[in-house]
Amino acid sequence: MKEASEMLDLVLLVDDDDTTNYLNKRLLTDMKVAKEIKVLKNGKEALDYLSEACGDKPDSTLKCPDLIFLDIKMPMMDGFEFLEEYQRKGLDAGDHVIILMLTSSASFYDLERIKNFKKVKKHYSKALTNHDVKEILAEFFQNRKN
């Protein structure tokens, strides 16, 4: 069992699919990955949250996430539109947030397009597995100290 000090502070699940969000949140909760897991339904909701939590004048009542799982295909604002706006607003300036793309159907075009965004470290197929989460923690949060 992980101690609270080893857990991430906040993981954002940005996906419009309720089943995927339920499964991913349950897995992350069972594996004690984060103190808080927040579900947002599209890129616009995520951008609004990040602008308040991580922008120039952050709201002290909101946490900036350690990790974002971002769906590619969503209504209102998809994952790529989110990433473009995230860069445009300068929210990608710090190295703190790890962004991983989630997709149910990764086309070659989408996978190539992901490479244009330096903040996106990898992509994973939906839904996350226990193995995926262990790999993510080992690769991106191995040296984490709170």
TrEMBL record:
Domain (Response regulatory): residue spans on this chain: 10-141
Modified residues (4-aspartylphosphate): 71
UniProt-listed SUPFAM superfamilies: CheY-like
SMART domains, per database record: REC (SM00448)
Secretion signal span: none
Alphabetized UniProt keyword annotations: Phosphoprotein
Taxonomy, superkingdom: Bacteria
Biological process annotations from GO: phosphorelay signal transduction system
Any Pfam family hit: Response_reg
Gene3D superfamilies with a match to the protein in the record: 3.40.50.2300
Record bears the keyword Phosphoprotein: yes
Name of the molecule in the record: Response regulator receiver domain-containing protein
Record organism: Pontibacter indicus
